[in-house]
Design brief:
alpha/beta, 7-stranded mixed beta sheet, elongated
Length: about 250
């Protein structure tokens, strides 16, 4: 069975334009869906070559849905490949799209790559991804580019938006619920992975995490009380941090 990179390299159909290192990331997350009746939604069709590539890779059982703002892309529609024409930053269109397609296993945002497009698409379509599915956004290096309405560390960038979602994923561990309250993101994202120009969100229903133990204790628990009783370690601590510990030294002792 050919890899996605091999399928791409032997491709002679419609134009496909990809960064070379994307194929390794695709393979990591998409391989488990090959040969299955997977539902895929791709935002951004362009010349239509990627639709041919996905068909070869996933097989004839795959149901492919795709979106582009260019009406000419409608000509790429065929059996088990459905094309929708509209803007990925139009809430009305995205709401209608959710009603017109089934829940998807994979959503790939390869659309216009502006900040508003990426953020709005995520806000409206993340809940269209099945439990256990993948939401992938590519070409996120545009978060560094002024031409795409952002720039390095800009608050409106998709990268900064994604970093905030990392905090949201950890909401159960934040002591003050007023700062980051638990919400549907916390309850439905089990992992967020950052690659060069790609962000991947793994969707899975989850409950509040807990820790547990098995087996017998074999050493004395090293606590703050233990440290205070150990004069040698106390001297080392004072030498490193001073007699009055700051917040960093307390974190260090944990």
């Amino acid at each position: 069975m050919s890899t996605l990179k091999e399928i791409f390299e032997s491709h002679s159909g419609r134009l496909i334009h990809k960064w070379d290192h994307y194929f390794e990331v695709y393979e990591r997350y998409f391989a488990a869906y090959r040969g299955k009746p997977v539902n895929i939604l791709e935002i951004g069709i362009s010349h239509g070559g990627s639709l041919q590539m996905w068909r070869k890779y996933f097989g004839e059982q795959a149901n492919i849905f795709a979106v582009d703002i260019n009406p000419e892309c409608k000509k790429f529609e065929e059996e088990k490949t459905k094309i929708f024409i509209g803007s990925q930053e139009d809430p009305v269109f995205l709401t209608q799209l959710k009603n017109d397609i089934p829940p998807v296993d994979i959503l790939l945002d390869d659309g216009g790559h502006t900040m508003n497009q990426q953020v709005v698409t995520f806000q409206y379509l993340f809940d269209s991804v099945k439990d256990g599915g993948i939401y992938m956004v590519e070409d996120t290096h545009t978060s560094c580019w002024y031409a795409f309405h952002s720039g390095y560390k800009k608050k409106n960038s998709f990268i900064e938006f994604s970093k905030d979602l990392v905090d949201q994923m950890h909401a159960w561990h934040i002591n003050d619920e007023k700062i980051v309250p638990v919400n549907t993101i916390t309850q439905n994202i089990t992992g967020i992975s950052f690659y060069d120009s790609i962000v991947v969100f793994e969707k899975k229903k989850r409950e509040e995490p807990f820790h547990t133990r098995r087996g017998d204790s074999t050493i004395t628990e090293y606590t703050d009380t233990t440290l205070k009783k150990d004069s040698f370690l106390r001297q080392v601590r004072n030498k490193l941090f001073g007699k009055k510990e700051d917040s960093f030294s307390k974190q260090f002792r944990r």
